[in-house]
Amino acid sequence: VRLVESGGGLVQPGGSLRLSCVVSGFTFRNYAMTWYRQVPGKGRELVASISSAGGDTYYTDPVKGRFTVSRDNAKNTVYLQMNNLKPEDTADYYCRVPGFNSWGQGTQVIVPS
Fold first, then answer.
1. Per-residue pLDDT tens for 68-91?
2. Are 17 and 63 within 8 A, CB to CB?
3. How confident is the model at residue 2 (pLDDT cuts 50, 70, 90)?
4. H helices of the chain, where?
5. Residue 37: Cβ within 10 Å count
6. Contact 7/109 with Cβ under 8 angstroms?
């Protein structure tokens, strides 16, 4: 399983970013996908998840109404649209396939206070 995240960067509070995660090595369309984030010195936090067909989503409370998870099964890609970003969203963001112990390199999001 290979996961490659991209799209992070430095953005001012209130701004937006769209993260992407391209996956390979398994049948993407058969699996739910998740996004996690990690602040240095802390554990990884589940941010959002999406079902295999995209019909069901989950968001952790701090991001509800601001983040949207989506997927394109034809492109083996899962996205995380992040709007109205806040300094507390600063973290490294990772995608993960539930049930597989594989992580990508992550993509860094910085929202200065």
1. 999 999 999 999 999 999 999 999
2. no
3. very high
4. none
5. 23
6. no
